[in-house]
Amino acid sequence: MKIKKPIKELKLSVPAQNSPISTFLTASGTFHDGDLLLNQKGLRLISDENESVPSETKEVDLQFSLEDLETIKVIGKGSGGVVQLVRHKWVGTLFALKVIQMTIQEEIRKQIVQELKINQASQCPNVVVCYHSFYHNGAISLVFEYMDRGSLVDVVRQVKTILEPYLAVVCKQVLQGLVYLHHERHVIHRDIKPSNLLVNHKGEVKITDFGVSAMLASSMGQRDTFVGTYNYMAPERISGSTYDYKSDIWSLGMVILECAIGRFPYTKSEDQQSGPSFYELLQAIVGSSPPSAPPDQFSPEFCSFISACIQKDPRDRSSSLELLSHPFIKKFEDKDIDLSILVGSLEPPVNFTR
Fold it and tell me: Does pTM top 0.85 for this prediction?
């Protein structure tokens, strides 16, 4: 019997056998993975150069413990875990708490450790702040700032479409976050989508969920794994080619175009809200002409911005740094557009009694 050769474009990744959590626990019950130490007291990172020198560790400012937090309600699911809205019992401050059980696949464990390191190091106003992280009884808990207007999914659900001036403000903030990730942290996010762009009542937009991010060892490094949300994936990722930071730019263009027209760009009309099937979508992204902004509905600057993001060849896409200087962004910079006016008028996605 002849065995057919596998299809070249299709790459399947078989998860490695799960490693027991005990492999990563010290005698005192501290989770230890590479240069990361995590326990009930919080997180420490040991620098590569001084792995054996405790005094060279970076200690977080320990202001509270998990016992100081009370759960209000479950508000969603992130990479590898449940997200809860919690409140500090004594101060009343709200946080988003992601709890991740560590009885998981090896690859996911590595992604979570990566997320911890990125959050520990992040110092960017357009990246969601992780205040604390803890390990206890087989679970890692991440304490994030609470973005009280949800994500762009929640915004579009209420306003249907976002007007150009507001979109320019959203774009600028997301691009500032991407410049930080791409140029300072050398990270491809790999999962830019509406639900990973969070908003608060002050009109701040921040990138979240680095559970599928990948650290690049050098500027020449590339990724060849298939993770993230396929709807917003760049063609080179779907076809199994290597990819770089420009894959995030495609995703950003798709997100912004969706916010502008009120539907997923590969959905032909509002009546066809279900969109194409999985295989139809993959085929369209790789084989068809990319979506574009209708020139009869949008300004030339906006159409140009979308085109600069959604190019089949990543070499033809602009970088996050270049896009910050795009005429669409510059057009509204001196207009004092206040995004808080838009989001402040919306119903919060989570209602509760304080």
Answer: no
